[in-house]
Write a structure and sequence with these properties.
alpha+beta; 390 residues; four-stranded mixed beta sheet; 10 strands; 4 domains; disordered N terminus; globular; 11% strand; HEXXH motif domain-containing protein; 14 helices
Length: 390
Amino acid sequence: MKTIDFKNLLTPARSNIGSDVHKQLLSLRNIKALESIVHANEEEENLNWLGEAIVLLKTCDATERDHVLNTPYVYLWIARYEGFPSMDETEKQTWLWNGFVHIFLQLNIKGNHALENAELQFIVKPKDLFFMKDVTGNQASKEILVIIENNHITFEVENVLYHFNAQEFHKAMNGPFITNEVFWFEEYVNIASTAELRMNMETADIVSEDIKKSFEEALQLIKITWPEMFDEIDGNIGNIVFFNPPGLPFFSDFRVHGTIFACHVTRPVVKIAEWIIHEASHNRLNTLMCARPHLFNDMKPIYTSPWRDELRPLYGIYHGCYVHCRVLHFYRLLEQNRATYNDVSIEAEIERIGKELQLGLSTIKDHASLSPDGELLVHDMQSLVMADSD
């Protein structure tokens, strides 16, 4: 029997999904979440497509499942299900339709599956119909009939037939990597409270050319300095989305897993590279910890954090140690070629991060209840920090 290797969790994720067991387990986690939704709503006819999608997903290879399930919108759709019982009928119809679009249609773009003949009805507003984006005038809800016949999908709205066009669908659902426009932003903000985000949030009016260029330079710096980390970012992050200041400099959220949010302000390129690695690493650790447990402590904010003024749960300090270990490694690699970058002292950054990590790892060592995976990762983090003093 082949043994699964869960070692080296600090190293960047492999680009080959077939060899990334954590990402495969994350896909299975999402399938289980979708199964729970189906079982809790067995009498909901407009969810029949989800049962068929689950069957198809179980026959897919790891790459197909990853492309369909490990996307920001699918995580958001699952998160929004918590409010399903309290939604009005229009909200329910919109939620069901969006799931059909972003799971069932995506699945049938990615794989060559034989579809069962069926008809589905939804009542949604034209703005939620990707094939009617240019509709003007009456924006009242419209009934849409989805016809699946002989492995083809057709939409009927007010006796007009629209044939499913995979190219138009792909264009509507996939924006630029560095962007201020993602179709799901409004839905996300509606479930993420201002208190939770610690700010009011709206997308930037436009991404300035200067800031776009600086982010492109930062990504190129990562690619040159640490190509394996660049590959992880390329394979795991779907968008960097800009929002208006004031606010957090950067952040990520599992409810839109695979996204980095960035405040639209000017920064040195090397600091942008640091923050991209930081947030991409939060995304990676979320994948690792969803696939297998690391930490059994509760979420009480009672511990001093090297990175926050307020007390934090041990979970947050554990995440902080992981992401800063990777940032420390990045700065070490950068130091081999230069002492400063954009007037940022690389040596000073290494010293700062090393001291913060010693404090964070000391708190973890003294208080954490760890799984074997967690113990192994903490050992690797301690070894990385100690290597800096050699």
